[in-house]
Amino acid sequence: MKIYLVVAHPEQDSFNFALHNTAVGVLKNANIRFDVSDLYGQNFNPVAGRGDTTNFPAGDLFQLAKAQRLALSSNSFVNSISQEQEKLVSSDLLIFQFPLWWWSFPGILKGWIDRVLTSGFAYGHNAILKPKKVMYSITTGGADSKEELDYYQNKIDGLYQDIFGFMRWEILPAFIAHGVQQKTHDERQQILASYQEHLKMVLRISNT
């Protein structure tokens, strides 16, 4: 098994990175191979456009899916895209680590989805990427009632289904850390411990 960790948070000292580092520790202890993309650390460009490929005809009207299929067939994606796609090809499970901002992905992560999960590669007729497993690890602003918790869950389920359900990937249960900014140090440590157990359950890692 090989895991691909994609983390989307601008602050290395954030709780998102604490969760990410927890995942790295679990994988290392279990001798599971993994790749990492730190999107902010890489200064990943989230804006899809003509610059994604080196050979889209200058006089043609730009169409994203058309440009992506042309780039795939001619091996002309720019390195920032082709390198991410290579990590995906070699992995079995993709884990996204991100904060839920305005009920969705941070812009940099949405841009990664737009630019890396391309037409002909990840979806569409004769897509070459075989379906993978995917899991989200998410922080939220907090929830004060069962109704709010259910609302968050429905939003996150939608983020799964709209992309990875469409591509027929195997969707694994998300780990959701609510209201971490309001938690004490001890409560945060308990969340990290819970994430360890969640990962061991998902990855079927024995505690023995």
Mean pLDDT reading: 96
Low-pLDDT segments, ≥5 res: none
What assembly state would you assign to the polypeptide chains in this entry? single chain
What general outline do the C-alpha atoms trace? globular
Helical stretch tally? 6
Straight-line N-to-C gap: 19 Å
Range of helix content: 40-55%
Question: In a few lines, what is going on in this structure?
Answer:
With about 210 residues, the protein is of the alpha/beta class. About 40% of the residues lie in helices and about 15% in strands.
Keywords:
208 residues, Rossmann fold, 6-stranded parallel sheet, 6 helices
Blueprint (SSEs and pairs):
Layout: E1 2-7, H1 15-29, E2 33-38, H2 64-74, H3 79-89, E3 93-99, H4 107-116, E4 133-140, H5 146-165, E5 170-171, E6 175-178, H6 185-203
Parallel strand pairs: 1-2, 1-3, 3-4, 4-5, 4-6
